[in-house]
Each structure stands twice: as C-alpha cells, then as structure tokens.
Automatic annotation (TrEMBL):
GO terms for cellular component: plasma membrane. The chain crosses the membrane at residues 9-30, 104-125, 137-160, 180-200, 239-265, 285-310. It is a multi-pass membrane protein. GO terms for biological process: transmembrane transport. It comes from Teichococcus deserti. This is Glutathione ABC transporter permease GsiC. InterPro entries: BPD_transp_1_N (IPR045621), MetI-like (IPR000515), MetI-like_sf (IPR035906). Residues 98-307 form the ABC transmembrane type-1 domain.
C-alpha cells in the first residue's frame, strides 16, 4: 500500500509541476503588455517612461526563463507573487477566499451523495418499476435545468415568497454559526441538485451491473438475505464509479461555481477569478488556476487511494 501511495504521489507532484509550467507559458503568450494596460486610462497611451519603470518593478523586463525561475522559486515557498492592481499578496487573497469555495463545494458534494446514493441504489433494485421511473424522471429533470435557473428559482421561492431563508450573503461561522449554515445551505443545495442526479444515475447503472454478476447470483441461490447481499456485494462494488464521478465533479466545481457565487453573493474564489481575468491581473490568474488545478490533482490522488481501499487489486497496477 505504501509503495502504491508513493508512486501515485510522485505522479501527482509531477502533474502539478507540469500544470504550473503550462499556466506560466500560456499567461505569458497572451498578447498585450500588462504594464501598459495598468497605466492606460480612458484609452490614452501611457508615458513610455512610466511603462518601463513599472515593467522593471514587476520584473517583466527580465528574460522569460528568469521570470520562470523566479515564479517556480516563489511557488516552492508558497508565494504566488503580488497583484498587478494594488500589489497585495495573491496568496493572502486566495487563502481568504479558497476555504469559502471549498466549504461550498464540499457541502454540495456531501448533500449530493446523501441524496443520490440511496436513491440510485433504490432505483437499481427496483429497475423498471414505478419507483425507478419516478426517480429517473426527477434525475433527468434536474440535469436539464441550468444551475443559475435553479439558484434563481430558489431565491424567488424560498427567500422572497416563503421567506424561509435569506436571499444570499455571507457571515463567518465564528460570528454567527446558525446564520452561516443557513446562508450556506441554499447555494450548496443548488449545486447538489444537479450533482445528486448524476450520482443517482451512476449508482443505478452500477447496481444493475453488479446484480448481474455471478457471485451475486450465487449468493441469491444460497438463500442469503437481500439486505446482506446489498451490504456485502452490491454497495461495495458499486462505490468505485460513484467515487470517480463525485471527485471529478467536485474538482470541476471548484472553478465552476461562478454563477452560484454570483446569484447568492458568496465571496468565494470563482468571483475573484472573474475579477482577475477582467483586470488581466496575471499573478492572480496564475495563482488561482494553479491552486484549483493542484486541488483537482489532489482529489484524483485521493480517489486512487480510495480505489485501493475498496478494491485491493488496484494496488497491483
């Protein structure tokens, strides 16, 4: 197990280095001079002397390989550089906003599993029956509605019509735990609505596949109780695809919660990324993209470890 984990960890670290290099190169291939863009006002070309001075202060006058070495050296120390807009530390801003987005995505993932997994198992065990048709129909409906529509409808119905919750906003957990949870549940539920449908469909398919395997048929033939068959054989063997789907979707959601954070005024990392792209603040964009990519790689590493626990045969690969 340790050798397997060491191999996967080495691959993950190599992927993070590749991503950091690609992000650096792609950002520096974008046309336009950041110094000129920062100094330009009202479409008037800035003073060339001011542009040259700003390029020197930002290190943009250095050769590309020198900038790359400085960039990678900073990453090893947890330094993502300074914002081009106000020269604040990018790492500090990411450290402030990332936990909020992680909390939102993790809560959505937990809700989707708590709802989608049992519903998928039930649909698989009742395949072709009324229960299966109802659950599959709800899943199809959930997948067909865009997340911003779900969020808007939730605000209109739950916040404005029924006045059960606040329309949006953010309060630190330490300040008011109950209000924080109340403000968190609606955006997290909005994300979980579609993700739970994905979990349901994947779980249903996995359950149907496992039910057709020889060892499950043999267990039925021996007269084992249905509950024991489900616990020992069906659930364990159905978890692998569910783990994969949830992990990949959570990784994608880290950078894809822009609309939800906007609708519910949740001050997370996605809104920060949009602002940075609009301002063409390269250090901010590189820092955010790299952090999101590193978390995505970490999720894949954790999925590999879960595979090894669920199915020991994976460790031989």
């Amino acid at each position: 197990m340790l050798a397997f984990a060491a191999r996967r960890l080495a691959v993950s670290l190599a992927l993070v280095w590749v991503v950091a290099t690609l992000v650096f190169l792609v950002i520096h291939m974008i046309p336009g001079d950041p110094a000129e863009l920062l100094l330009a006002q009202g479409g008037v070309a800035p003073d060339p002397a001011l542009v040259a001075d700003l390029r020197e202060r930002l290190g943009l006058d250095q050769p590309l390989w020198t900038q790359y070495a400085t960039y990678m050296g900073g990453l090893l120390q947890g330094d993502f550089g300074l914002s081009l807009q106000d020269e604040h530390a990018v790492a500090d801003e990411i450290a402030l906003r990332l936990p909020r987005t992680l909390e939102l995505v993790a809560t959505a993932g937990l809700l989707s599993v708590l709802i989608g997994l049992p519903a998928g198992v039930l649909a698989g065990l009742r395949a072709g029956q009324l229960t299966d048709r109802i659950l599959s129909g709800i899943a199809a409906l959930a997948l067909s509605i865009p997340v911003f529509v779900i969020g808007t409808l939730a605000v209109l119905l739950l916040a404005q019509k029924l006045r059960l919750v606040s329309a949006g906003g953010y309060v630190p957990f330490a300040t008011d735990p109950l209000r924080h949870i109340g403000l968190l549940l609606m955006p997290a539920g909005t994300i979980a609505f579609g993700l739970a449908a994905v979990v349901l469909r994947v779980t249903r398919g996995a359950v149907l596949e496992v039910l057709e395997r020889e060892h499950v048929r043999a267990a039925r033939a021996r007269g084992l109780p249905a509950g024991a068959i489900i616990r020992r054989h069906v659930l364990r063997n159905s978890l692998t695809p569910v783990v994969t789907v949830v992990a990949l979707h959570l990784g994608a959601l880290l950078g894809g919660t822009v609309l939800v954070e906007f609708v519910f005024n949740w001050p997370g990392l996605s809104g920060y990324l949009v602002r940075s792209v609009e301002a063409r603040d390269y250090p901010e964009v590189m820092g955010i993209v790299l952090v999101v990519s590193a978390i995505f790689v970490l999720l894949n590493f954790l999925v590999d470890m879960l595979y090894a626990v669920i199915d020991p045969r994976v460790r031989q690969g």
